[in-house]
Amino acid sequence: MSHSLSLDLTREDAQAIDDCWNRIGIHGDKSCPLLAEHIHCRNCSVYSAAATRLLDRYSQLQEDREQSVALLPDSDVVTRSLLILRLGEEWLGLATRCLLEVAPLQAIHSLPHQRSRALLGVANVRGALVACLSLSELLGLDGTPAGAAPSTRVMPRMLIIGAEGGPVVVPVDEVDGIHAIDERILAGASLSGEQANAKYTRGVLQWQGRSLRLLDEEQLLLAVTRSLT
């Protein structure tokens, strides 16, 4: 997906919500009379109400958001495009068709009344509040941190994915990149033993010396929607 699509989606959210924090608040001219009391906009009930309204939007918006992907004729399609990412010690593969953008990690602001364990709070993406979810919680991972990073250049990232009601932010520990993987290799992925109970997973395969867990993007996006309603 192009970056312009994620910009369009976040602009829709910004237009639907009065983002006073960008005009007279901490990110604006700081003229808001409530700043003296609350110190920061995230401590203000107006900010919390805006975040709650955003989450309500995920519940109410039912319009179809079709993802179109340009493909070669079926006889020539031999690869599938996957984003390879890391959570703790586990490497995961996510279909790029549900990905809007990979962005630097932003501050995540918790909400006073969380709706689910997976909901971390909201993040400010170009002035718009976007719900932030824990992929580890959705997948049932234990959250054990990985060992020493292989390179000092490795930095956590945020994935902005297209859910039913709009973009959702998912923090990850590392993004390896987008790879075109032979569909014959993907077809050989399977689940066995303890892996058989892995949530939202199509299978596990060995790829470039890694054990790679292939996520079922359709089931995962349904879980994302349930976490926001």
Description:
- Pfam families: CheW.
- It is found in: Cytoplasm.
- Keywords: Cytoplasm.
- Residues 79-226 form the CheW-like domain.
- One of its GO terms (biological process) is chemotaxis.
- Strands 9-1-2-11-10 form a 5-stranded mixed beta sheet.
- The radius of gyration is 19 Å and the shape is elongated.
- The longest helix has 16 residues, at 45-60.
- It starts with a helix and ends with a helix.
- The chain has one domain (1-229).
- By secondary structure, it is an alpha+beta fold.
- The protein has 7 helices and 11 strands.
- 28% of the residues are buried.
- The model is unreliable at 1-11, 62-75 and 144-152 (pLDDT under 50).
- Strand 7 and strand 8 (166-172) form a beta hairpin.
- It has helices at residues 3-16, 20-23, 35-38, 45-60, 135-139, 183-187, 217-227, and strands spanning 79-87, 90-95, 99-104, 108-109, 119-125, 128-133, 157-163, 166-172, 174-182, 201-207, 210-215.
